[in-house]
Design a protein that fits this description.
The protein is an alpha+beta fold. The chain has one domain. It is 44% helix and 14% strand. It contains three helices and three strands. The protein has a three-stranded antiparallel beta sheet with strand order 1-2-3, sandwiched between helices. The longest helix has 30 residues.
């Protein structure tokens, strides 16, 4: 699967199935667009609309329709690669902006 976009609460994260954890900090939509443009260029931005539709439906941009709960099952996003909840992922990978 590689990398997909996930959304927890009000933040988007890039999730890696290789490390079973986010590889970016949570960001707003504008930050996500900047990351996508940097990583994938204009084509990535063109594809983003379709990916975000899946995020709105499933919580993840996976083309396989995996709901976010299935995607994070057995994650290694916690300390020492422990499995943590969606709320804990949000807390751990969202930087303070104030």
């Amino acid at each position: 699967m590689g990398r997909v976009i996930i959304k927890i609460k009000d933040r988007y994260f890039i999730w890696s199935s290789v490390v079973d954890a986010p590889i970016t900090y949570g960001t707003d939509l504008e930050g996500l667009k900047e990351w996508v443009k940097f990583e994938h260029g204009e084509q990535g931005l063109r594809d983003l609309t379709e990916r975000l539709e899946r995020v709105d439906t499933f919580g993840t941009s996976s083309e396989y329709g995996y709901p976010i709960e299935d995607l994070i099952r057995g994650n290694r996003a916690g300390e020492n690669e422990t499995t943590i909840t969606l709320d804990e992922i949000y807390e751990r990978y969202t930087e303070e902006t104030e």
